[in-house]
Amino acid sequence: MHSLITCALPSHASRCANAFNAGRLTCYLVLFVWVASPDVTSGQPSLSSPNVLILIADDLGIGDVGCFGNTTIRTPAIDRLCREGVALTHHLAAAALCTPSRAALMTARYPQRYGMVGAASGGPPVLVHVASRAGLPSSEPTIGKAFAAAGYRTHFTGKWHLGSGCGFLGRSCQGPLAHGFNSTFYLPNTLFERANVEGSFWVWPEEDFHYHALVGTSAAVLAVAVLLKRLKFNVAAAVVVTSLLVAAPAAWFLLTHYRFHTPRWYQVSEWMDFNLNFVVMRQTSVLHQRAPLESLSMDMVRATVDFMRAEAASGRSFLAVHAFSHPHTPLVCAPHNRGRSRHGRYGDAVEELDEGVGLLLAALDDMALYNNTIVYFTSDHGGHLEALGADGQRTGGYNGLFKGGKFQGGMEGGIRVPGVLRYPGVVRDGSKLSSPTSLLDVLPTLLELSGLPSVRELLPDAAQPLDGLSLSSLLTGAGGATEDPTRGRLLLHHSGMFVDAIRYNTGEHVYKLHLRRPVYSSAGSYQCGWGETTACCTWRGASHSADISQHPILFDLRRDAYEDRPIANTSREYMAVVQHMKAQLEGWRQQVPYPPSQFNSVMDVILLPWLQPFTFL
């Protein structure tokens, strides 16, 4: 074999010329294999390796998209993907809110494994500040690392929300760069309603007794200083006055711009949020101190198109992750998209999102990359049912007939998301896949569809057990209909550290067992009031959710997709299925202990000024 390979190398061409015809043919074949085969171990994808474009919407409800049933919001670009690819009709987020769901998509692992979830003891459910220490651990395998290890050029655009990793004075903020991405144009944090509300630096809420206590304490200290002065203790008086001049403003600032004295100790003032938490970064530098909301969607599209165009010109395979900021609040669109939809600001934002999808797909067409690019589209979780603007407009999404929404743990409306995958000539176009699939499956699926090795082979130093699995055989039809990799799998639906529900696919049935349910504002309702900051905070525990694990509710989603008819708890089916699912869950708990939540640590979560990035640094 060694002589055949040597014969195939250019420096030994004369030796090949003297070979017998059979030997010459062998040489040519070996030469062809040597040149054309992918050298993944040395970080070079094959010339035929497909590009990958991942599109992630923010807070988009499954009922907001045309090809998933909406008839009043225009989504022609997403509908085009459905016609040209596979619609995943039973696609599931790994959490009903941003940070943990995005972490699961990036790693193919439940975020509970590495503490990227809220805790019942009072911390936030997601990352809330750019300048905080919490974030996706560098030891985790990610989609960026895996494709980079395979020789791909990798890029991240848009909402990251997995930790910025900034150093002292906000320098060297790594963000996606620390997780395998070569280039970035991104929002380290998330956008929410305060991104459009500046607030005031000078605040003195007269109704807050803490401020009155500060005034009283300052007056008492000043009186002591006057007394010391009269008693000729001039040095002591000077020390007291100096201390007061330092301590009083510091105490006022902490009371005004931090919230340590409130149940939401991790929050900051409107002024701090507006000026510090909505930065836009390119690589490690701040591009905009405050996100330009009107142009942000198109700015992000341009960044991704520029990356794809540069890599297409170089002939290198690429992975581009484009995480839209729409349709999360605040719902600010470019002027040409305002007032165009039939659903106010929310509808405008969905249609601007779709416009961005269309521009990205058109760019692939223009670069002749249509046939050699895998495109995957989804949302990080379901729509926020309670979201209502100050003017009374609905500012949250529609989850179709699925019950519940964002923040609501295992409720279907919060985790059932639109999913589409297009790969021309490989994936069956215009088809639908009804097997339960998850954002956890994205990484292993894309690797196999791309003809690349597994995560364990690509990232041996970051080898961790994955919770996702490859859907390649289901998407391509390889292996026959009897080989459904999701059959027999148990999917867990968490709320923080709690397991709210379990899903089990037997093939004939898809059972869902509810162990905890939100406490709703009224009977027959599936929401917790109204307001853009209102939510069913199920990760908080008993005050927001009911533990029904002693008498769990069981549904068969094959027969009852919208969970209207629970299986009778006296039936043999109920008793057998519940016993099996509970046993599976207990086995999981024994094998996979969860570490403490990162979001329960004050010093990991609060805004640390010395980590804040600025445009002038």
UniProtKB/TrEMBL annotation:
Coiled-coil intervals: none
GO molecular function, one term: arylsulfatase activity
Cofactor(s) this protein cannot do without: Ca(2+)
Keyword Membrane part of the UniProt annotation: yes
Signal peptide start and end residues: 1-43
Residue ranges of domain Sulfatase N-terminal in the record: 50-451
Keyword Transmembrane: yes
Entry's transmembrane regions: 209-228, 235-255
InterPro entries (UniProt xref): Alkaline_phosphatase_core_sf (IPR017850), Sulfatase (IPR050738), Sulfatase_N (IPR000917)
Keywords: Membrane, Signal, Transmembrane, Transmembrane helix
Family: Belongs to the sulfatase family.
Protein name per UniProt: Arylsulfatase H isoform X1
